[in-house]
Amino acid sequence: MSEPASSSVPSAPRADGMRIVVPPPLPLRGPLLAFGLDALLALVMMFALMMACYFGWALWRGVRLAMQHDGALAPDALAAQLGAPGALVLIVMTLISMGCTSLLLYVWRRRATPAERAHSFAAARRFRTWAWVLAAGVATFLLSSLLTWCGRRLGLEPNPSNLALIEAGFAQYPVFLSLFVVVLAPLYEEVLFRRVLFGRLWAAGWPVLGVALSSAVFALMHEIPGLTGNPPLTTVFLLAVYVAMGAVFAVVYRHTGTLWAPIGAHMLNNALALGMLQASGG
C-alpha cells in the first residue's frame, strides 16, 4: 500500500524539499477506461461476495433449524423461520465482501512496487505526514458534524443508512464494532478508493479528476440512491458529505505521498464520530 511510483507523482515533494519534475499527463481515454473497469469490478466483486456470504449464512441457519426439528420442518416453514441476519453477521459480511474486494483489486490491478513501498514508508516517517493526518482527521469530523447540523436546521435528518447497524452492533459487540469502524473499515476503504481508484488517475497525471471521481464512487458505495430508505433530498445531502470526506482523504494522500496518511486520518475521523455517537446516546 503506497503512492504511485515517484516518476508519476505530479508535484510531490522530495524529502530534501526539491520538486519532482511533473511529467505530461497521459491521454485521458486509457486511464479513464481503467478507472471505470476498476469501479465496475469493485461493484461486481462486492455484490458477488455479499451474496455468497448471505447464501452461506442461510444454508448454515437452515441446517441448524432442520436439526432442531429433527428434519420435520416443511420447506415453507423452514423458509419462514430463517429470519434475517443479525448485526454481527451483517458486519462480518460487509467486512468479507469489501475487505476481500479491496485486497483483490490491490493485488490484481494496483499492487505497489518495492520502490513505491520504500517511498511510502519514508514519507510515513516524516513529522509533516502526521500533522496532515491529525489536521485532516479532525477537519473531516468537524466538517461532517457541521454539515449534519446544517441539514437538521433545514428540516432534514441526514443519518447515514448504516447508522442503525452500527448502533445495534455497538450495543451487542462494542469491542468488535469499534475495531471494525476505527481500524478495519478505514484500511480496506483507503486501499480501494484512494490507492486503486484515485491512484489510477493520479499516476496518469489527472489528480484533480481522480479526486472528483474517486470521491463520487466513495459516496455512492456508502449511500446508494433509492436503496437506503432516506428521502431523495436527504440522500443527496449525505452524498455531498461523503464526497467532501473522500476528497479530503485523497488530497492528504497526494500531499503526503503515503497511503498510511489517509488511513490514519480516516481512522481518526471514525474514532471521533464513534465517540461522539456514544457520548450523545446515539
TrEMBL record:
Transmembrane segments: 39-60, 80-108, 129-149, 169-188, 200-221, 233-253
PANTHER family reported in the protein's UniProt record: CAAX AMINO TERMINAL PROTEASE FAMILY PROTEIN, SLR1288 PROTEIN
Every CAAX prenyl protease 2/Lysostaphin resistance protein A-like domain range: 174-272
Species of the source: Pseudoxanthomonas putridarboris
One Pfam family matching this protein: Rce1-like
InterPro entries registered for this protein in UniProt: CAAX_protease, Rce1/LyrA-like_dom
EC number(s) on file: 3.4.-.-
UniProt keywords, alphabetically: Hydrolase, Membrane, Transmembrane, Transmembrane helix
GO molecular function, one term: hydrolase activity
Protein name: CPBP family intramembrane glutamic endopeptidase
Domain of life: Bacteria
